[in-house]
Structure formats: structure tokens, C-alpha cells
Amino acid sequence: MRRASVRVRAALGATVVVALALVAAGFFVVATLRGGLADTARLNAENAARGTAAQIADVPDTEIAQVDGLDGDEPAQVVDADGKVLGASDPLKGRGPMADFARADRPDDDAGDAGDAEGADADADADDAADTDDGRAEVDTDSETRTLTFPVDDDGEVTYDKEDVVGTQEFSVAAVQGRTMDGTPVTVYSGASLGAQQEAVSTVTRSMLFGLPVLLLVVAGVTWLVTRRALRPVEGIRQEMSAITASTDLTRRVPEPDARDEVARLARTTNETLAALEASVERQRRFVADASHELRSPIASLRTQLEVAAAHPELLDLDEAVEDTVRLQTLAADLLLLARLDAGERPAEGRVALDALVQEHVAQRVADPHPVRVGALESGEVRGSAGQLSRVLANLLDNAQRHAASQVSVAVRREGDGLALSVQDDGEGVPEGERERIFERFVRLDAARSRDEGGAGLGLAIARDVAERHGGSLRVEGPTGDGARFVLRLPLADG
Fold first, then answer.
1. What topology does CATH give the domain 262-342?
2. Is the pTM above the cut of 0.70?
3. Each residue of 323-339: pLDDT tens digit?
4. pLDDT digits (tens, 9 = 90+) for 88-121
5. Strand stretches in 142-219, DSSP E
6. What's the CATH number for 351-491?
7. Each residue of 127-173: pLDDT tens digit?
8. Cβ contacts of residue 435 below 8 Å, gap of 6+?
9. Domain ranges of the chain
10. Which of 48, 56, 220, 384 could form a disulfide with 470 if both were Cys (CB 3.0 to 4.6 A apart)?
């Protein structure tokens, strides 16, 4: 199954995240708004009930119906301890005690219904209120609130007329205990409509339901455009890489954006990779050309000698033929080792004592034109291949023998957490500007070429490659004119 593009996935991901965040925020806002408005309605109902109770404390039982708190459109009642309604606002005139309305909001309830046990128990709590010194009843500050449902008409006003009822409306009702001037304990009920709360919540919910899709479309569109613009350089890099692959022209480079973001770093890394690949291919081409050139000479010489020997056996120079064969064998071995090193062959895991390696190798070199003086040989082991390290030592000594005037010296010393193997001759040395070039493959300085026509220029290149793959280094040190001093540095083996 084909996966969607990065732009599509980014747009969908951003849209889903924003949608979840907005839905969660919407629920929080609606819940907070509903709770806040409900608290406001409860507070209004309680304040109205307390205000009515305060007025009743100053009037006798017979004048309760005339207090200001009972002349509004909101539901309000004053009920004594026996469940008798002493006064009520217009919406509840002729109705039973409000304690019954939690279970009876029928428009045909009789006006004389008595309060239930719950209302009686709530009103009885008012008996604990005490008279003040001036003879007036005081208001008990204890109160309770609950939500009741009343029938309403098309104006949202509470009504019990069968012809006017069009629905119901919830009210937050507060009950406050108090006493009249005559000392009669009463319960004052006062309600505040929750219609404003419900309407506000409905309005906010509708606005969110309408605005959410629009906002999500905007988020998706903006994310699509931003992602498209951000990925435009990536598409340019892809197209250029495709063109480079098709043309095999490694000199081309991908465009690098001016920004300092991840795409720009990707472009720079891609160009660095292309440069390294170009250099590697160029080295490979030079290697093949130089190898062909170096192999051509001994092969041509050996062929000529064999052809002459075939025609005139008495003219065969057997020693020269053997020498050409040895040169050819040595060159083939060097090329094979370089090929393995280029392929990433890792050295064998072993422990090699450099001092013992030097002593063993020097003892075997009996045909050198110049004597090899062995200096200090400090003990120590390195990790790697004994065969490859022996090849490095042999190449360094061969190079020193070709350039030495009278003698060659070799030594092993400790340097910090490593060992340094040095091979020095007393020849003319290596100029400063050539000290890195001599480690390139098939490179021979003019002086070296005139002194050794058989050298292929691979010995030092092989030595440095082997040193680096053992975690070490190989450099030329010392002042020019005092001979060449090659130093191989390798880390000590752990433990």
C-alpha cells in the first residue's frame, strides 16, 4: 500500500492534534461556563431568599403576602412549619409548598396540596431560631439549594395554566430558615432561572461546532503550505541527485539553501558525500591506470626475455627473468593488500609485542646494503595483526635502505598510553612539502626514482593504511637534511 506524502501526513497530524486540543478545551470551557453560571444562579436565589426572609422578620404573619420579595416573576414562597403556604409570588400563587415541586410539576396540581415529609422536616429546622432583644425574629443563615423544574409559557415565565404551558425550565431554588415578627418559624423559598445559563452554553456550543471545522481547515491548509515550502529544497536535492545518477557526473552538486536548518545541513552533507565519492572514484581510476602502467613494464620485459629464449636459448638471462618475476609477484601482492584494505578489511585481533617483532625482523635481514642499528626497545604490546605490522616494518626498512647513506636505525619507545616505533636513515631526508605526498599511491620522488627504478611507490601507502586501520598513525619527522625519520604510533593493548 502506497503511503501518503510527508505533506499529507504532516497536515493530517497537525489537524488531528489541534482537533483533540480544541475538543478538550471546548469541554473545559463549556463545563467552566456552566458551573460559573449555575453558581451565579444559586447565589442569586440564595440572596433573594435571604432578602425575603429579612423582610418577613419585620412583619406579622398576616402581612407576609405583601412583602417586596413576593411580588416578582421569579418563583418564591413562604411556608410555615406545618407546610402551609403563607405567601407566594405570582407564578406560584395557589400552589402547594415548593418542597413538593421536585416530584410534582404537573399543571393541574390542586392549590391545597400539603407539603410532604421532606418539606416539613426542612421547615422544622427553623424552630431553632431565637428572638432578638427587640422582639423581632432573626434570620437563620443556614440554607440549601437545589434545582427544580417548573412549567413555563412561551415567554419563559412560570405558569400552571394548561393553555399556556409550552415546556419546562430549570430553576436553582434556595431555602432559608427564618421567623416572622410574631415568632412563627418559616421557610423562605426563592428561585433563579437557569435559562440564561442554558442559553449561554448552547450559544457557546453552537459557536464551537461551527468554528471548529473552519479552524481545522485553516490549520490543515497552513500546515500543507508550510510543509510544502519547507520540503521544496528537498525536492530540488532529489531531482539533482537523480540527474547525477543518470549522468554519472560526480562533479555536480545539489543546491544548498541559504537557511541554517536541517534541510541545509542535509544538502551540505550530501555535497560532502558526493565530494568524497568523487575523490574515491578518482583515486580508483588513478589506481587502475598506475597499476596497469606498473604491471606493463615487468610483464613486457618478461615476455621479451621468453620470446628471445624461445628463438635463441643460449641468450636467456635467467637471473633477470627471475628478478622480473619477483617484481611482478611483489607488485601483485601489494595491489591485492591495498584492495583488501580499501574493502574495509579489519586487522586480526591479537596482541603483538613490538620489541620482539623488531628483533625478529631485523635478524632476518641479512642482505641489506646498509647495517641496521637497533636502539632502545621498550616493552609493550599493541592489538592487531602481527603479519600486517611486520609488513609495515619491512616497508619502512626497505624505504630507509634505499635512501640511507651509510646506516639505518630502529627503536621502540613508550609515549603516554602508546608505543612509537621509529625508523631513521642518514640520507638527505624528505622536503617539508613532500612529507604527505610520499604516502600517496604510486608516488615516487625524483631522487627515489633515479636510485630505485624497480620501486612501484606502494610501500609507504600500504604502511600508512595499515597503521590507520590499527588505530595509529605514520608520519615523517625531523629536520630536512638529517635524514628521514618515520614514526609509527600505536595505542597500547588494554589489560
1. Helix Hairpins (1.10.287)
2. no
3. 778 878 888 888 888 77
4. 887 788 777 876 654 333 334 433 333 333 333 3
5. 143-152, 167-179, 185-193
6. 3.30.565.10
7. 333 333 332 233 333 456 767 777 777 777 776 766 677 677 788 88
8. 475, 476
9. 56-197, 262-342, 351-491
10. 384
